[in-house]
Specification:
1 helix, flat, three-stranded antiparallel beta sheet, single chain, about 25% strand, mainly beta
Length: about 60
């Protein structure tokens, strides 16, 4: 399978989601190297992150957030 080619757009503004979520979410780590992410709640109610480089690959993780 060939690697996908993304479509890009120039955006005129971006919402600062981090500022309004600050104080309500825990710190997120290891989110800048992979390209696909999913967050799920584990048995104890904490969020865990799964990641993968390309959409056709298997999910890696979980990484505790």
């Amino acid at each position: 399978m060939a690697n996908p080619h993304p479509d890009t757009w120039q955006i005129s503004c971006m919402f600062d989601v981090g500022s309004w979520a600050n104080g309500h979410i825990e710190e997120i780590n290891n989110h800048t190297k992979s390209q696909c992410f999913k967050f799920v709640r584990n048995e104890s109610g904490k969020a865990v992150m799964f990641y993968r480089k390309w959409s056709h690959e298997e999910w890696m993780g979980p990484t505790a957030t």
